[in-house]
């Protein structure tokens, strides 16, 4: 490779169908304004996904990738924009916690944990 401070051009050959897909995505995206930006982001994302294990695998065991209906995504984006949540990830995690761990269930788990801790006594060596 050449000087890391220098940009280097590469050529990428794509068929008409892939170019159309690429250009349509760029037009609909608010994130990318040209093919080069999208290609750089896609290359980085691909390499990061491969380095994290295998395709479809998360970096951490508690990372989950989900596909949501557009209305749900729009609702979450609106809540983030209004400042209810600081990120999409925070909103989804909060909703999942409230759905899967209702307050009564959390209180019961805390009570059980407290009871278990009080039942365990450590006896020092004599």
**Annotation field: number of helices:** 5
What portion of residues belong to β-strands?
under 5%
Q: Which residue ranges are poorly predicted, with pLDDT under 50 across at least 5 consecutive positions?
A: none
Briefly note the structural class of the backbone. Answer: mainly alpha
- Give the termini separation: 67 Å
Helical residue percent band: 55-70%
Q: How many domains make up the 3D coordinates?
A: 2
Q: What are the secondary-structure elements, in order, as H or E?
A: HHHHH
Computed CA radius of gyration, to the nearest angstrom: 24 Å
Name the average pLDDT: 84
- What is the number of E strands? 0
| Major sheet size, sense and barrel closure | none
Backbone shape: elongated
If you had to describe this structure to a student in words, what would you say it looks like?
- The protein is an all-alpha fold.
- The chain is elongated, with a radius of gyration of 24 Å.
- Helices cover 57% and strands 0% of the residues.
- The chain folds into 2 domains: 12-62; 66-120, no CATH class.
- The protein is built from 5 helices and no strands.
Give a quick precis of the structure.
By secondary structure, this protein is mainly alpha-helical. Helices cover 57% and strands 0% of the residues.
Key traits:
mainly alpha, 126 residues, 0% strand, 5 helices
Topology:
Blueprint: H1 16-28, H2 35-51, H3 70-81, H4 88-100, H5 103-119
């Amino acid at each position: 490779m050449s000087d890391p401070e220098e940009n280097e051009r590469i050529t990428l050959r794509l068929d008409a169908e892939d170019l159309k897909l690429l250009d349509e995505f760029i037009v609909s995206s608010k994130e990318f304004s040209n093919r080069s930006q999208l290609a750089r982001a896609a290359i980085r994302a691909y390499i990061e996904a491969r380095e994290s294990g295998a395709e479809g695998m998360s970096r951490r065991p508690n990372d989950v990738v989900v596909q949501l209906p557009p209305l749900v995504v729009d609702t979450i984006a609106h809540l983030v924009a209004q400042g209810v949540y600081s990120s999409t990830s925070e909103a989804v995690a909060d909703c999942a916690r409230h759905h899967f761990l209702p307050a009564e269930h959390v209180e019961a788990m805390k009570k059980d944990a407290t009871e278990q801790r009080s039942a365990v006594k450590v006896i020092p060596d004599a």
